[in-house]
Amino acid sequence: MAQLTPADKKTLITRNLQETLGDDKLTKILGERDLKIYWGTATTGKPHVAYFVPMSKIADFLKAGCEVTILFADLHAYLDNMKAPWSLLELRTQYYEQVIKAMLSSIGVPLDKLKFVKGSDYQLSKEYTLDVYKLSSVVTQHDAKKAGAEVVKQVEYPLLSGLLYPGLQALDEEYLKVDAQFGGVDQRKIFTFSEKYLPQLGYEKRIHFMNPMVPGLAGGKMSSSEEDSKIDLLDSPANVKKKLKKAFCEPGNVADNGLLSFVKHVLFSLFKEGEGFEVKREAEHGGDITFLKYEDLEKYYAEDKLHPGDLKATVEKYINKLLDPIRKAFEKPELQKLSAAAYPPPGKVKAGAAPAAGAEEEGPHRLDIRVGKVVEVARHPDADTLYVLKIDLAEAQPRTIISGLVKFVTQEELEQRLVAVLCNLKPSKMRGILSEGMVLCTSNADHTVVEPIVVPATAAPGSRLAFEGFSGTPDEQLNPKKKVWEKLSADFKTNGEGVAVWKDNFLLTPEGEKLSSKLANCCIK
Predict the structure, then answer these.
(1) CB neighbours of 25 closer than 8 A, spacing ≥ 6?
(2) Tens digit of pLDDT for each residue in 455-465?
(3) CA separation, residue 106 to residues 39, 98, 275 (Å)
């Protein structure tokens, strides 16, 4: 291969990017030496096929002679509203390293040219910690919140951890000793934050490269948290076919087309000289055709000359070709075990790390609290103080729940009422009738006034309620021997304004609305 000129290298480095901040500096450095660059990923949800977009760009950087560092940002994963529980942090970091190395091998990127770093290996050092304090003394709350607006999970009352996130990402540029940082365009506010504040600590302003955001299969951003929007790297060929079949792919629409974006930013950047996008079709549908340039494919599709079904079938072929080596690598028992441990099924999250055991025990995310609608109210045949309620929780059939509200709430007041139900208590018989949950109520100190928590009228039956700042998975069933509910309920109450909280963290609907009661500063049970 012929020696690349600085101009050739710059073309490779910047192709398919949406934006570059620091173009003049890039030109200057390339005229003197090769560029040092890093890409970081928070170890949260499972990586999906959209990760091939930064991977293919990393391949470009290496072709251009860049020194590339990949950062597994484990602390960032925890700081971002605890998207990765502390007890799973190390396991998820190991999973990310294995799967990203498998991805890079799949597209022919030599791993020996890359440097892999874990954030906590240097972010807990004395020097780094001191710089975090220095940065916190000059950064305003407004700027910190604004910087993380597109990346950090946004809630009404943000945790301090989310405000720290942009500052740590800025400091990473200095501590990794790079010239540039690469990320999606959703990182732009963090990049400009870094350019503003690093010089205030006496550090150099870095170059920033931004990829466009690839639309998901359903349109919009491809996300780890939206199952139908993405294809998992370990999805079977049958699952790939199923998801692509449901993918949004409107005839002639090239603006919000996740499949075309994938072809442009991944496949065409990986094709070797003379290779193209090969579409196999029946003769009556136009016959086989190969596109050597993406622009020709886009134009052809925009003119309605390529059927969405043919585009999906072709993309399916290429995706499976990329995923086959990854699936093969993860056939190893140790990697299958790692995958299962890092991403346990709902209700199976365990406190694997000793320091986290107490936090896991006390976390209110373990409570499966859902909105229910009372569809039937009857008096218990063998207990004067108990109601037998039928509550719609959007399950196959209403649950039977026994409630001691006879002295406090009339049958008429309960019928068709929305209530908050604790759903993962162990079912138990109350005077001969099995109760499958508990209606959460507030009570004054002498238990003379009791009322169900008030649920916003807009909440849908079956929707899960969550405590602000806690995003873990509820237990399938609370273990009565460990008295999980008894321990957690000690801090579950209404505050001075009558709003339901656990240690000052609001209980919220999926829409972010709070639950309340006319009883302030009272326990909830």
Answers:
(1) 179, 207
(2) 999 999 999 99
(3) 19, 12, 17
